[in-house]
Amino acid sequence: MNQESFYRYLMTQRNPNSADEIEQFANNAFLDSAFPKQSTDFEEISQYLEENADYLPSMTIFDAAWRRYLDAMN
């Protein structure tokens, strides 16, 4: 299965004028030059965000975005 990276999916969720938490996460991830852009691995991205993403107020936002990503890939 050839699926797009989580980052590429997340970029489709960007909306600078929205208060939606996932859209805000996408906006901020876009500005994060170190984000693991090629990864499709939950653990790798989750660990990166926990250690580096000051812009993500809660990991539950990532979890929700990841569920949307999996739904979009299936």
UniProtKB/TrEMBL annotation:
What HAMAP family does the record point to? UPF0346
Family listed: Belongs to the UPF0346 family.
Species assigned in the record: Limosilactobacillus oris F0423
Q: Please list the residue ranges annotated as the YozE SAM-like domain.
A: 5-70
Lineage: superkingdom: Bacteria
Protein name, UniProt field: UPF0346 protein HMPREF9102_0557
Mind telling me which Pfam families this protein's record contains?
Answer: YozE_SAM_like
The UniProt entry, under InterPro entries, shows: UPF0346 (IPR010673), YozE_SAM-like (IPR023089), YozE_SAM-like_sf (IPR036806)
